[in-house]
């Protein structure tokens, strides 16, 4: 097959441009290499065992520092390397992956047309005072941590004639918080560390209603940092430490700041009642695909 001369010319010019760009960086060292979630973990300065961050995106990815000894999970989590600096021992983490969180908001927007843009979900959810007994388990392609149920499928439970689109919107947001609590509980059981606070980042952390409910259902403080692009921040931290731009972890901790903190406002009895209903709804999603 022959390509038009214009395409061949453009291709040649593009290759020449890339060669010139590469030549400009030939003496620049590669000082840090991190995975996406590990970079976010470092950007949140989770350098001590028991510290954890949760990234709220299309899905959720929660990591907890477990120190220099890898912890093999017995509760549906993954063991991963958190970071390794120079000749120091590697530090490990437990990771819990949740498949559908922000993607559920997109589904509300694109498939049901109940909102025009993703940020409208909070406005709609605030039209009601609670979930009205409605629970949404977004097992669209199964459930990830801590269940690993590939045969599960999505269900909306607790519907009555009283329920409206505001209750469904609220159930959509609450599903993210409930799934996060399940992963946190599994991490505490595996690691032996009780989570004190949860550091958050990702596209959904601008939703104040979600962040407050996350604190309520966890019974812990939830913190949003000043710099929320934590993946890029963590990569720059690793490179900066490697070349001596940053002195140590202490300097990085000093650079980390709080934008907002949400404190639990629910009484423990109400918290447990809501969570038990969620756990009941989750079981209804199991084994749908035979």
Polypeptide structure, described:
The chain has about 290 residues and is α+β, with helices and mostly antiparallel strands. The chain has nine helices and nine strands. The protein has a seven-stranded mixed β-sheet with strand order 3-4-2-1-7-8-9. It starts with a helix and ends in a 5-residue tail after the last helix.
Number of helices: 9
| Element order: H for helix, E for strand | HHEEEEHHEEHEHEHHEH
Largest sheet: 7 strands, mixed
Mean pLDDT, to the nearest integer, reads 92
**Largest beta sheet: strand ordering:** 3-4-2-1-7-8-9
Overall 3D shape = globular
In angstroms, what is the radius of gyration? Answer: 22 Å
Helix content: 40-55%
Distance between the termini: 48 Å
Structural class: alpha+beta
Low-confidence stretches: 1-6
């Amino acid at each position: 097959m022959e390509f038009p001369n214009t395409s061949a010319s453009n291709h040649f010019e593009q290759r020449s441009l890339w060669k010139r760009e590469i030549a400009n960086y030939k003496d620049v060292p590669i000082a840090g290499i991190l995975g996406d979630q590990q970079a976010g973990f470092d950007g949140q300065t989770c350098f001590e065992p028991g510290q954890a961050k949760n990234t709220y995106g299309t899905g959720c990815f929660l990591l907890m520092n477990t120190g220099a000894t890898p912890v093999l999970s017995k509760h549906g989590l993954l063991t991963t390397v958190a970071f390794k600096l120079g000749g120091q021992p590697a530090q490990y983490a437990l990771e819990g992956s949740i498949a559908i969180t922000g993607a559920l908001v997109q589904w509300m927007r694109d498939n049901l047309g109940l909102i025009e843009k993703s940020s409208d979900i909070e406005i709609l959810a605030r039209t009601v005072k609670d979930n009205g007994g409605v629970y949404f388990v977004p097992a669209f392609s199964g459930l990830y941590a801590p269940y690993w149920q590939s045969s599960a499928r999505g269900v909306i439970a607790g519907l009555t004639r009283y329920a409206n689109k505001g209750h469904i919107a609220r159930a959509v947001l609450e599903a993210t918080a409930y799934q996060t609590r399940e992963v946190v509980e599994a991490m505490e059981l595996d690691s032996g560390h009780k989570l004190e606070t949860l550091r958050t980042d990702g596209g959904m952390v601008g939703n104040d209603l979600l962040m407050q409910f996350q604190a309520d259902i966890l019974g812990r403080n939830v913190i949003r940092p000043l710099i929320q692009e934590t993946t890029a921040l963590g990569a720059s931290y690793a490179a900066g430490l490697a070349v001596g731009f940053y002195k140590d972890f202490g300097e990085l901790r000093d650079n980390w700041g709080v934008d907002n903190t949400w404190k639990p406002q629910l009484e423990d009895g109400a918290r447990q009642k809501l969570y038990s209903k969620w756990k009941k709804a989750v079981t209804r999603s199991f084994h749908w695909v035979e």
